[in-house]
Prior knowledge:
The protein is mainly β. It has one helix spanning 92-99; strands at 2-4, 7-8, 17-18, 22-25, 32-36, 44-46, 62-63, 82-83.
Amino acid sequence: xxxxxxxxxxxxxxxxxxxxxxxxxxxxxxxxxxxxxxxxxxxxxxxxxxxxxxxxxxxxxxxxxxxxxxxxxxxxxxxxxxxxxxxxxxxxxxxxxxxxxx
Length: 102
């Protein structure tokens, strides 16, 4: 396993350096595994492609950034789905609190 930290500020040449976010990936095949950031130490963000177990079906689906979708994209929007032109005001944690019972 290896860790990648993106360079930030390269284009603007302002306060360049490394992002504190650590992207973990397989050093043999390059598969992205998870992201961890010391600014939010209680959170681990797995890449969907790295999850190999069954997950529960969410009670609703959210489609975001629809204003920026290319014309060839056909979102699979179903009855009851939530739609957002950009990012919703609600955080992912707030969405889970509202939709996933304890």
